[in-house]
Amino acid sequence: MSTVAEQFSAAAKANFESNLALFTEFTTKAFAGVEKLIDLNLSAAKASLADSNATTQKLFAAKDPQEFFTLSAALAQPNTEKAIAYGRHFSSIATSTHAELSKASEAQIAEAKLKLIEFVSQVSKKVPQGAEGTMAFLKSTIDSINAGYEQFAKRDGYSFA
């Protein structure tokens, strides 16, 4: 049988390892999202450069001011559509990255919650007589913290179950 101190030490080590894994997962997912955004921006810059070159060629080929302004107006519409498409793609990347990060944090919080409840349960079996009030207070505090997390989750649309 292990002592409460050994159990606490093991729980602290497991918590540290779990937090390190979460940090690694967060960093990996965040970098993947940033990488997607960089790819999107590079593609947009290349396309913009090519479009600018083509547009300039067409505008220089205009024979009179009327044709120049007609071409300018006709070429503005595709640029607006491209900007909207870029915004949608950017939003999609940001939304999916946010969802992945939220999913990882929800899993971590749920796991930490279960480990904490398990730890308190194990410790409460070994408390000396007369310390039941302290354990009841600790359990009540944990229940309040869990209720706070759930309230936060409901308010912000997350699920920490």
Q: What shape does the CA trace take?
A: rod-shaped
Mean pLDDT: 83
Work out the helicity level.
Answer: over 70%
Distance between the ends: 31 Å
Q: What would you call the structural class?
A: mainly alpha
Proportion of beta-strand residues: under 5%
The number of distinct structural domains comes to 1
Number of helical elements: 3
SSE arrangement, N to C: HHH
Unreliable stretches = none
Which quaternary structure do these chains form? single chain
Total count of strands? 0
Radius of gyration, in angstroms, nearest whole number: 29 Å
Q: Biggest β-sheet: count, sense, barrel?
A: none
Characterise the protein shown here:
This protein has helices at residues 4-60, 65-124, 132-156. It is rod-shaped and about 100 Å long. It has one domain (4-156). With 161 residues, it is mainly α. Helix content is 88%, strand content 0%.
List the helices and strands and how they pair.
Layout: H1 4-60, H2 65-124, H3 132-156
Primary descriptors:
single chain; 161 residues; mainly alpha; 0% strand
Question: Gist?
Answer:
With 161 residues, this protein is mostly helical. It has helices at residues 4-60, 65-124, 132-156. The chain starts with a helix and ends in a 5-residue tail after the last helix.
